[in-house]
Specification:
The chain is of the alpha+beta class and 92 residues long. The chain has a single domain, classed as Ribosomal Protein S8, Chain: A, domain 1 (2-Layer Sandwich). It has three helices and five strands, in the order E-H-E-E-E-E-H-H. Strands 1-5-4-3-2 form a five-stranded antiparallel beta sheet, with helices on both faces. The longest helix has 20 residues. It starts with a strand and ends with a helix.
Length: 92
C-alpha cells in the first residue's frame, strides 16, 4: 500500500493522471469530501486530512491491483478501514 498527501488543488490532476473513477463510496467531510476511486492500477481511498480550522488536504491510501492479488490482506485491510470510517461518520 502506498500513502500520500495531496493538496485540494492538486487532487483533480492526480485523479486525471491515474484515470480515477468514483466507485460511489462517498462520505461527506467538513471542508472536503471522502471517497473511493478505482484507478488504472488499483484502488485509492481518499480521506480528508485536517490541517487547521480553515484548511484541509487529502490523505490517500493506494492499493495496486497487483498488490491486491498478491497480498489480499492489504487490500482487505484498506476496505475494512474505509467501511469502519464510513460507519463511524454515519453515526456522528
Amino acid at each position: 500500500m502506498t500513502t500520500l498527501k495531496v493538496g485540494s488543488v492538486q487532487i483533480e490532476k492526480w485523479i486525471h493522471q491515474n484515470k480515477g473513477n468514483y466507485t460511489g463510496n462517498y462520505v461527506e467531510g467538513c471542508l472536503l469530501d471522502n471517497y473511493v476511486l478505482e484507478c488504472k492500477r488499483g484502488y485509492a481511498f481518499v480521506y480528508e486530512h485536517y490541517l487547521n480550522p480553515n484548511s484541509s488536504d487529502y490523505y490517500i491510501e493506494f492499493v495496486p491491483y497487483k498488490s491486491a492479488k498478491l497480498h489480499l490482506k492489504e487490500y482487505d485491510t484498506a476496505w475494512a478501514r474505509w467501511l469502519e470510517f464510513e460507519e463511524r461518520e454515519a453515526t456522528a
